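Holo prediction. Input below; ligand is adenosine-5'-triphosphate.
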Amino acid sequence: MYRLAKASRKTRIFNAATVGIASVAAGGSCLLCAGRPAHAEPSNESSFSLPSFINSLPASPGYSIPSAAPAPAQAAAPAAASGPPNDLPRNDFPRTSAAGFDPEALERGVQMLREITSSLHANKVFDSLRKQEETRQAEEAARKAEFQAIQSEMEVRKQQVMYEEQRKLAQQKSQTEAQRARYEDELARKRMQAEHEGKRILNSELVKMQEESSMRQEQLRRQTEEQIQAQRHQTEKERAEIERETIRVRVMAEAEGRAHEAKLAEDVNRRMLIERASLEKDKWLAAINTTFGHIGGGLRAVLTDQDKLVVMIGGITALAAGVYTTREGARVIWSYIDRVLGQPSLIRESSRGKYPWSKWLTFKGLKSLFGNKEVQAAMKDGKGFGNVILHPALHKRIQHLAAATANTKFHQAPFRNMLFYGPPGTGKTMAAKELAMQSGLDYALMTGGDVAPLGSQAVTKIHELFNWAGKSKKGLLLFIDEADAFLCERNSNVMSESQRSALNALLYRTGDQSKDIVLVLATNRPSDLDSAVADRLDEVLEFPLPGEDERVKLLHLYLDKYIAQAGTPKSWKSGLWNRQEKIEIRNITNDVITEAARKMEGFSGREIAKTMASVQGAVYGSKNSVLDADLFREVIDYKVAEHQQRRKIATEGSA
Ligand SMILES: Nc1ncnc2c1ncn2[C@@H]1O[C@H](COP(=O)(O)OP(=O)(O)OP(=O)(O)O)[C@@H](O)[C@H]1O
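Structure of the complex:
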């Protein structure tokens, strides 16, 4: 019994010690683990026996348990259960094992347990301690549940945070993806743009290269064509030269043969002619005698018979009246037709012909109707104005004007009026005609001097002229030569009233730009023109006296025209068959021509043409129709002296 009581007491002490240890652990550390964190789980009551543990403690001097505890240690038990570790007795010299374990707390716990065991109120203390322990465990369980709730809440929050983080991450990822797609898209677009730009530049360079190559090819083709043309031209020229020479030789041979034949047959012919003439005379005499015999018989019969006489007189009178009436009627009708369809009297020369049907009646007119092939060919070659020799710059300008006028007509634009001025005989009229032909227009030529004699009729005639000019389908170039004669300054005293009216009529008709008429004025005194007339002019061209180069060309032109081509076919003139002899040219070299051109300084084109006509005259005046260098020089020297004399007289007259 005693042993049982002792054992139960020991068990209680153990429990109390356990509680005490647990209290110590609640204070921050258990007695077994002093200096280390308290155990989370309470120790198993049955697995460990404190008294046996105490008894089994070694009695080594280092682990000796004090036999008596100091008085304050009794109160320390409850304090140890709940109080802070600061209330524990100080241990200024802690004893530790080699493994670092400090058994002091354990010793104190054992001491306390011993005190409790020895106390009279041990049971109560242990009960209260158990209750406290249970309460504490309940609290602990509640805290644990709370802790678990908090932990699960934490878990939920953690999940939420994780979800939020993932969502943000996904969002960020999608943003990054979108940004990356945008960036890639932009890069792709830029790359495409760059490629496109590159292709465009490449294409434009290709096009440029193609253009350049086609231009080069075109230039090459043109050059080749020009060379071919030049060669062809040269060949044609040479062939023409050979043909001309052949014809000349043949004609000369024929002429010589014919002259010889004629001489042989002359006597025979004369005899035959005399015989034929006497036969003709007899025939005519017989016919006249017979006719007069019949007339005499008839007259006798009429005069003896009165009725026949009356009938004859009546018939003759009726015939005379009929003839007169018909003639006057025809004259009236013709004057009406002339007024309506005819060319105005002011026109001296025109490509249109006097009447609309005139072109059908002449070879030249017919030729112009179907297009003048020579002019067209000259235009094609760019060698128009073949017979007009001008300074190269002036020549070029007139050609440009011809082309521009042709285009103007083609595009139905208004024409440009022109003024040609310069010394007399420098080719103004010729250039105007050529200009009209090359631009495909009709031309009409009038002289300013023809207006003054018309008096009061002048205004009507000017209007008539412009009405007629406006009817041309092709357009008409109206050339007024000596324009200063009637278009001079209106304030001048020499101008008559009718002339002034005529000028006003012309100003009225040319006030607007015309689509039908190109007005070309020619004058030697441009300063005399009325200011209103000058205002109507768009192009002003000066025709100077020919320079040395032009004089050489003019001499060649007229040498060919008046000498080389002279005396070709038989021509019927004034009821006679005329035949000019051919002229033989000897030793007229380029040097001779150039020498003559040098001497003829100050000559106009007309004077040069006339000089060559004089050379022709001199040749025909000689015995053998041969032009050699001596005869040529003689005529030129004579003409140069004459020219200088004329100039001297003119200078003296003006002084
Ligand atoms: N540049 C030239 N080229 C060829 N021949 C010319 C040239 N200039 C004048 N002639 C000759 O002189 C003649 C008169 O020429 P044209 O009538 O064209 O001169 P113009 O300047 O109109 O003279 P004007 O002022 O006296 O009317 C022509 O028929 C031609 O034979």
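Residues 559-654 form one domain. That is the main takeaway for now.
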